[in-house]
Write a structure and sequence with these properties.
heterodimer, A: 364 residues, alpha+beta, six-stranded mixed β-sheet, five-stranded antiparallel β-sheet, 10 helices, 18 strands, disordered N terminus, B: 286 residues, mainly alpha, MetI-like fold, 16 helices, globular
Chain lengths: 364, 286
């Protein structure tokens, strides 16, 4: 973050004793609903609050921003207690779900709004805003009103606006929900890069497991106002603790380098996909797309065939999820009948295969 | 619409003109007479008086009428006081509208009801009430008089006060409605960017609701321009000081009807201009 910035903003947010990063216990009581969530994150972390609608994710985000008061609990950012600080004085930036760009201001003035409010002069604020728009690749759209921006552009302006106040905590509410499927892939990759560059804590709220897994280092799954599970995307995908999570994160997700239809996964093996891409990509497929064999299937081609070992088995309803290690760590779903026929047990060695048509690759 | 399935239509009209009319009426397909007749009477009732005003207008002497000192004085006074009353309504009414739309306080609904009271209150009663409050012996007026030597009744300031009293509710209600329709989350977004609640109002909310404020201001201005009852009660009828257009019209009708008609025409023109200015807001059928 080499952008020009004034020092007055930092003066209002001293960094006294206490660990850097976020340390929050958010309790919000509302009629018939109680949110009780603990969140911690170190600078540079990207944490995703994942959960069904009405789970309290957005309430948690609003509490972090100061838009909803805490009933109980605490909120410390870089060691400074913020629970009694009004939203305008918190070093917190928010990207709202539908961006809420001020319709009467140009993209540049939207971004300059924050620095202006935090004490920068008009010219200085605009210089900073222009630098942020340039970072987002939007220099050519500085004078454009929000309604003339595409969804992806508006999202980046909203991100620039939130970052321009140089927050120590960046909050994103369903950052990709307002985009159509095609734009979404592209914007997700961009957003991932920007979040990776951001040196302070990011917390994003989403109900889309894929967004959460791609964007976040750590997932906090919230149901009925409580944290039901917490961990890395891989952890949670392997060991879902509730049916909701199992359904939600029913995905095998890998990073790799694509060359045409073949993707060399960081985990080792090559996987063949329907998409034709090049460069860093994600590959995802659901556990139900995985087929298991005890013996190497003779007729099958060698593509997308891996030798694995059963590390664990879990029953989920009438399904069994097999946790596999070996050439490629995998989660596979199969029926109880199939599991019995295969005589699956922890330690059993199996061959796993997945059809190229059931994988999805997209740029990282 | 075509006459294929209506033999009567084909047989009836001979020339092109009635035929077209007939087809046009047929498009409304069966407006029942018990509705159509009263509707037409209502239309005539509303439009005929205005038409009469135009028919009887002293068109040839109109330029002289409008440039006579009394007319000019009244017109000038009306424009100045109505504009001043609108300004007062804006400065005080917009914050009141914000308070009603954006905050919760005990008795808010009661306050809102009281604000709208002048909308339905006979203006004369408003004038009497103003006299009792701000008159020389009024509840507040006596202090204004003895402490500051300020007398409001029967002054031009009094006219502005009377007009603002009657017009401000229009503005407040209009702006409050616009505020309620506007997304309050824009203010939240501004707050997270470091704006105080007032800065958020000034730099985000105000520009967003500007069209609503403008419409409310025009409405209030039109109401102030036509104010009669409260003005004559509280401010009297002194040419050049408190005699506004409506008062001048009323007075002129007794000894110089042509002047009254001329003044009325001016007010009619202003009203039509206001309506044209607000057409997008108030005249869209939906």
């Amino acid at each position: 973050m080499t952008n020009p910035h004034h020092t007055t903003a930092d003066d209002t947010h001293p960094h006294p004793q206490g660990p850097p990063g976020l340390d929050a216990h958010l309790v919000v009581d509302r009629s018939g609903f109680r949110l009780d969530v603990t969140l911690t994150a170190a600078p540079g972390d990207v944490v995703a609050l994942l959960g069904p609608n009405g789970a309290g994710k957005t309430t948690a985000l609003r509490a972090l921003a100061g838009l909803t008061p805490l009933t109980e609990g605490h909120l410390r950012l870089d060691g400074t207690a913020l629970e009694d600080t009004p939203p305008e004085s918190r070093p917190v930036g928010v990207v709202f779900q539908d961006y809420l760009l001020f319709p009467h201001l140009s993209a540049l003035d939207n971004v300059a709004f924050g620095p202006r409010c935090r004490g920068a002069g008009k010219a200085e604020a605009r210089t900073q805003a222009a630098a942020w728009l340039e970072r987002m690749g939007l220099s050519g759209h500085a004078g454009v009103k929000p309604r003339r921006l595409s969804g992806g552009q508006a999202q980046r302006v909203a991100l620039a606006r939130a970052l321009a106040t140089r927050p120590r905590l960046l909050l994103l509410d369903e950052p990709l929900a307002a985009l159509d499927a095609r734009t979404r892939l592209e914007v997700r990759a961009q957003l991932r890069r920007h979040l990776a560059e951001f040196e302070a804590v990011s917390v994003l709220v989403t109900h889309d497991p894929l967004d959460a897994m791609v964007l976040a280092d750590r997932l906090v799954v919230v149901e009925h106002g409580r944290v039901v599970q917490e961990g890395t995307p891989a952890d949670i995908a392997r060991h879902p603790r509730t049916d909701y999570i199992a359904r939600l994160v029913g995905l095998n997700l890998y990073r790799g380098q694509a060359a045409g239809h073949a993707v060399r996964l960081d985990a080792g093996p090559v996987i063949t996909t329907t998409e034709e891409l090049s460069g860093p990509v994600f590959v995802a497929f659901p556990p139900s797309a995985v087929t298991l064999f005890r013996d190497r299937p003779s007729g099958a081609s060698a593509r997308n065939l891996w030798r694995c070992e059963v590390a664990g088995l879990e029953t989920q309803g009438d399904q069994i999820r097999a946790d596999l290690t070996g050439e490629l760590p995998l989660a596979a779903d199969l029926t109880t009948v199939a599991a019995a026929e295969l005589d699956l047990h922890p330690g059993a060695s199996v061959w796993a295969t997945v059809k190229a048509t059931q994988t999805h690759a997209y740029p990282a | 619409m075509t006459s294929l399935d209506k033999p009567g239509v084909v047989a009836g009209p001979r020339s092109g003109r009635p035929r077209r009319r007939r087809v046009g009426a047929g498009g409304r397909r069966g407006v029942p007479l018990p509705l159509l007749l009263p509707a037409l009477v209502a239309l005539a009732f509303l439009l005929l008086p205005l038409l009469a005003l135009l028919v009887r207008a002293p068109w040839h002497s109109l330029p002289d009428q409008l440039t006579s000192t009394e007319v000019w004085q009244a017109l000038q006074l009306s424009l100045v006081t109505a504009t001043a009353a609108t300004a007062v309504s804006l400065v005080l009414g917009v914050p009141l509208a914000w308070l009603l739309a954006r905050t919760e306080f005990p008795g808010r609904r009661l306050v809102r009801a009281l604000v709208t009271l002048p909308l339905v209150l006979p203006p004369v009663v408003g004038g009497v009430a103003l006299l009792l409050a701000l008159g020389r012996n009024g509840v507040i007026g006596q202090w204004l008089d003895s402490w500051f030597g300020i007398t409001l009744p029967f002054t031009t300031t009094g006219v502005v006060i009377a007009e603002a009293f009657v017009a401000m509710p229009f503005l407040v209600i209009s702006v409050e409605g616009t505020l309620r329709a506007a997304d309050p989350r824009y203010e939240e977004a501004a707050t997270t960017l470091g704006a105080s609640r007032f800065t958020a109002f000034r730099r985000v909310t105000l520009p967003l609701i500007a069209p609503g404020i403008a419409a409310g201001a025009v409405l209030a201005w039109a109401r102030a321009l036509g104010e009669f009852g409260a003005t004559i009660t509280f401010a009297g009828n002194f040419p050049g000081r408190t005699q506004t257009m409506p008062l001048a019209v009323y007075l002129a009708l007794q000894n110089d009807p042509e002047a009254a008609i001329a003044l009325s025409l001016v007010l009619l023109a202003v009203s039509i201009a206001v309506l044209a200015g607000l057409r997008d807001r108030w005249m869209t059928t939906s």
